[in-house]
Structures are given as structure tokens and as C-alpha cells.
Amino acid sequence: MSPVGWSRRDALAGLAALGLPSLGQAGGQIEEPLADSVRSALSAAIANDAPPVPEFTDLNKRLAYLRWLGAMGDRLKKRKPDFQTRVEFLQTVWYESRRAGLDTTMVLGLIQVESAFRKFAISRVGARGYMQIMPFWARLIGNGDPGSLFHMQTNIRFGCVILRHYLDRERGDTFLALGRYNGSRGRSEYPNAVYAAQKNWVHPDA
């Protein structure tokens, strides 16, 4: 088939065959001026490099986490066939979402919409990785290296910290915060897509 007649699916398959990053589905955050105090707080939240290893002093909490991990692993198996990769991804999402005070099911729904769980996804506007982080965030609050946004924990930490920032700005309104995350604040398409995807990851122990 000639390139002129390619569908989006053909293009994605071609990128995968060449070993190139596939396109992300969603939009991107809009760069806005940050107060120095906000920038410092976000930088500090990003800079804490504690590894995403859950620790439990309560046996029941540990068992709840293991039940969640097993259930989510089963649901994610088709998207991430390798067991160790799947566990490390879920462990990181669990850790970073709680670290930022976010609903883990919402973070998984957002990742599903943003990148379809593709580590090296790149959107048309240049957003990168699982949570489709715009490169300007690496300059504003990170180490300045946009390539680091393809590192799993770095990407998920940035995404969770940024979403927490937007939730705080929107006084806890998830609809507006999700729209801001996508660069489409006030429109319903993106928040509704995340809400719908979130239902795939609901679990009693989430």
C-alpha cells in the first residue's frame, strides 16, 4: 500500500515495525507562567527520587495491595505481556498516584486515554510517554532533559504531580483539572474519555 492511502492504524503499525515511537492519542498541557513558590514546590515533588517500592506496616494493607496488583495485572496482560514489566508499571502507578494524593483508577484511566499504555508514545504536539508529558515541564521543574520523560517512573511522577497541581488550581474539580491536563479546559470530550476508561480499573482495594 502506498503512504497516500495509509490509515492511522497502518501508520502506527509501520512505526512499531520500524521500532519508532507510536503516536499518543491525546493533546498536551499548555505552558503557563508559574509563581516561583509553585515552581519550587513542583520541582521538589519531582526531585524526591525515592524508588516506588511499597512498604507496609499493616498486614491487611499489604494483602489489599497484593489483591489489587493481581487483579490489575490480569486486566493489563494483553497490553503488557511481560510479567515483570507489568508488575513494575503497576507498582509505580500505585506508588506515585498515592504519593500525589490521586485516585489510582483515574491515573490508570488517564494513561489508557493518553498513551494506551505505550511507554514511548509521542503525540502530534510532542507530549511524551505514558502520561504524555509536554517537554516544557522538564525545563520548568525537572532536569531540563526531555529524553528523561521516557523513563517510566519519571514520566509517571511528572504526570501525577502535574495532575495534582491542576486539581489544586481547580479546587478539586476533576472535570476542569483533566481538561487542563489535556489542554482543553472546559470541553467535555477528554474528561469523559478518562472517566469512561477509569471504569476499566475499578477495584475494591484500589
Largest sheet: none
Sequence stretches where pLDDT stays below 50 over 5 or more residues: 1-24
The overall pLDDT average reads 84
Structural class by helix and strand composition: mainly alpha
- Looking at how many chains there are and whether they match, the oligomeric state comes to single chain
C-alpha geometry: globular
Radius of gyration: 17 Å
Binned, the helix content reads: 40-55%
Question: Strand share of the residues?
Answer: under 5%
Report the total helices.
9
Order of helices and strands: HHHHHHHHH
Q: What separation lies between the terminal Cα atoms?
A: 45 Å
Q: Count of DSSP E strands?
A: 0
Q: What would your notes on this structure say?
A:
This protein is 54% helix and 0% strand. The chain is mainly α and 206 residues long. Helix 3 packs across helix 4 (83-99).
In short:
This protein is mostly helical.
What keyword list fits this structure?
mainly alpha; 9 helices; 0% strand; disordered N terminus
SSE inventory with pairings:
Elements: H1 8-17, H2 36-47, H3 59-76, H4 83-99, H5 104-115, H6 136-141, H7 152-169, H8 174-182, H9 189-198
